[in-house]
Amino acid sequence: MIKKESKFKENQAIYVSKYFPEYIREKVEDPGIDEKIKNLTPEKIEKTINEVLGRLSLRRKAAIETCMHCGLCSDACHHYLSRDKDPTYTPVSKVKITLWEMIKRKGKVSPEFIRDCARIAFTECTQCHRCSMYCPFGIDIAFLIGQVRRICFLLGVVPYILMDYNYSLSATLTQLWIPQPDWIDSLQWMEEETSVDIKDFQVPFNKEGIDVLFVTLGTEPARAPQYIQIIGKIMYHAGINWSYSLKDYANMSMFVQDYFTMQRIVREVFEEAVKLRAKRIVVTECGHATFALCKAAPPLLGYKELPFEVLHATEFYYELLKTGKLKIKKKIKEPVTLQDPCNLVRKKGAGDKLRYLINEMCEDFREMYPNKEHNFCCNAGGGIIAAGSPWKKVRVESNKVKAEQIKATGAKIVIAPCHNCHVGIHDIVKAYNINAEVKFMWDILLETTEIA
């Protein structure tokens, strides 16, 4: 047995797994897990596990039987590196403690075991796919953890706040229960404020025959309406024929493996684009929404090819600068570094475009090492940050490696062109006392181009 008690402070509440005594963690109370397991019966657990594991069995079987336990995935995981190389944080251990045990026991496990599975699957793996890059056989560990999430979701054992987001999406197709009139109010408020300087400024919505449908997250009109203003200015100065979507395309359902709601959200995007006769879809600075549209949901919808070209906002900015539709007025002099979002760089290959943008707008760009597709995750994606405040402390502690990366650059600005990355990096910068400001790419555009 590997004893880890010495890593905890005196009188600190800890949790020890009944199945794997080496799995020792700081105790975190979450009613979505702790209370929901009380409703489970052995029969329900066994039935659910076997129903899920009965599907995609060949893909899962190939992955599990191919693993040679070589350990090369270990150093690829930011959780493992940030937790003093505790072996229970290795990707292979996470699969072994959860999915392998379910298969070994043929689904005959207890509610307490499901508690372990939920914590591991939802808070100790961001499904960033970095470990799969270093696996000599390319085993998709994120897929295996996704199977665990699916089982937990069907059993109703999911971090409370994350599940609430999914309830909201399944009921209203918005993550924050936002009524559409409030959304329109935010747009009109930004129009009024901006029209003081730009008389004919508009944020069009439900406009037909457009070149670009700009899709966003409900958090922007609800909590940060200034982002609407920035995007509106970019479109205005670039002369884009566009429309702003009034729908929330945050896909929290993808994180909990709610396939039905995940498909509904993505189908809504494409149906809106058809209705408005859009040529392209541009997604706000959000990695997971882009991944859901481009990769995750289309196969479930039966699409062999995407019905529309889908760009992340930064890929769109790249086009605007390359074609001269936006021009640089001045460069930022402070040293800057870049957080490569996993869904945008590792999974979509946009790393070089991000660097083109930064080098055009900034005088002193300092890379983190490793970077691009090899960069470490922000530890906020994959639904971890959506698990909410109960998990914030352990989330930040599990990305010490990212804090070290940022510190090593000496940068005063960290550009994080993804909502989850932005909040996750902000929390890391604050927790580890790093003297740096976190900005979106549109913030940099606002400071350096004629849109200011």
From TrEMBL:
Protein keywords: 4Fe-4S, Electron transport, Iron, Iron-sulfur, Metal-binding, Transport
Positions of the 4Fe-4S ferredoxin-type domain: 64-139
GO molecular function: 4 iron, 4 sulfur cluster binding; metal ion binding; oxidoreductase activity
Domain Cysteine-rich: 336-424
InterPro entries (UniProt xref): 4Fe4S_Fe-S-bd (IPR017896), 4Fe4S_Fe_S_CS (IPR017900), Cys_rich_dom (IPR004017), Helical_ferredxn (IPR009051)
One Pfam family in the UniProt entry: CCG
Protein name: (Fe-S)-binding protein
Species, as recorded: Thermodesulfobacterium geofontis (strain OPF15)
